[in-house]
Design goal:
305 residues, alpha/beta, FAD/NAD(P)-binding domain, 2 domains, seven-stranded mixed sheet, five-stranded parallel sheet, 8 helices, 26% helix, 26% strand, binds flavin-adenine dinucleotide
């Protein structure tokens, strides 16, 4: 007997989708392979009822709540490939082949951290991507924003956004691009300093950031650094040949969350740059509702219900 839906990825998007599909009496298999986007973070913030919860605890509660639904199976396993077509997919899960009518990808994104000394060790502790997630705890401290050439059009609005949490802000371009005069002027008028030299390393004491060291050895005091490293999709997304948007996110129909491949849906970070746990959870519920409506109509009219 095939599963109705196989969900690949057990972060907020996948857990939330499994809950909705489980409650809709669908047979669901949720597979999760482990490393998740916020693995390095100490707490999940900005998720109502879960503000301040450690990421592992967040997932534990999600799985505990799924355990109440016997029609939902959860496996700690990687999905290595998916073949077939809508109504009759076959997924390679570890050594097994699992059949499912629909596939929902909630595989997140992989952050490709730059090779700056100290960056990887401080990611999730003093180097963050989102001020809504980690700004409150570090408010009024010396902050930096390490911008990339690819994000240069985003530099001004993001730097001005950060000013909402601190007056002490330095923007680092790492020598990678020129900041237009008008943007530099607006940064200065907002009290934001600009450092255009290449960044040599992050100076830290344990997981506490102290300064950003520039190529000439000068140190700029900085306790929290924001950055948006490039992201890539997991291999399964490429293997399925899904159409992508220009920013690399998976293209989905806004109403149904179906991808360019019939019967394959996607929710969460892999589909958007508006990334956050509660947004991913909501998108998971959205996809679950769309899949359930379609499947239920199909099963009811074919006499399978
Ligand atoms: C350092 C850091 C801190 C953050 N802090 C916050 C915060 O405080 N608040 C907030 O709202 N957001 C925060 N975020 C963002 C948040 O983590 C993401 O938006 C959220 O986790 C996205 O959920 P998701 O379900 O789409 O993906 P993920 O949570 O990344 O989950 C995807 C899952 O899919 C699994 N997977 C991938 N491929 C396969 C496969 N082939 N087979 C099986 N499983 C697979 C992965 O192992 C992973 O477990 C943070 C992000 C980072 C990087």
């Amino acid at each position: 007997m095939p599963y109705d839906v196989i969900i690949v990825g057990g972060g907020p998007a996948g857990l939330s989708a499994a809950l909705a599909l489980g409650r809709a009496r669908k047979r669901v298999l949720l597979c999760d392979a482990g490393p998740r986007r916020n693995a390095a973070a100490e707490h999940v913030h900005n998720f109502v009822t879960r503000d301040g919860t450690p990421p592992e605890e967040f997932r534990r509660i999600g799985r505990q709540q799924l355990a109440a639904y016997p029609n939902v199976d959860v496996r700690d396993a990687q999905v290595d490939g998916v073949e077939g077509s809508s109504g009759a997919f076959r997924a390679a899960v570890g050594a097994d082949t699992v059949e499912a009518r629909r596939v929902l990808l909630c595989t997140g994104m992989i952050d490709e951290l730059p090779a700056i000394e100290g960056f990887g060790d401080l990611w999730g502790h003093a180097v963050f991507q989102c001020p809504y997630c980690h700004g409150w705890e570090a408010q009024d401290r010396p902050w930096g924003y390490l911008s990339r050439a690819a994000d240069s059009s985003h530099l001004l609005p993001f730097a001005l956004l950060l000013r909402g949490w601190t007056r002490d802000l330095v923007v680092f371009t790492g020598g990678a691009f020129e900041v237009p005069d008008e943007a530099a002027l607006r940064l200065r008028s907002a009290g934001v300093r600009l450092e255009t030299a290449a960044v040599a390393r992050l100076v830290a004491e344990g997981q506490r950031l102290e300064a950003v060291e520039l190529a000439d050895g000068a140190r700029v005091r900085c306790e929290v650094l924001f950055a948006h490293p490039p992201q890539r999709q997991v291999g399964l997304v490429g293997a399925l040949g899904l159409a992508l948007e220009g920013d690399g996110s998976v293209r989905v129909d806004p109403m149904t969350r179906q991808t360019s491949v019939a019967g394959v849906y996607a929710s969460g970070d892999l589909t958007t740059r508006m990334q956050g746990a509660i947004l991913a959870a909501a998108a998971g519920t959205h996809a679950a509702a769309a899949i359930n409506a379609e499947l239920t109509m199909e099963l009811a009219t074919s006499g399978a219900l």
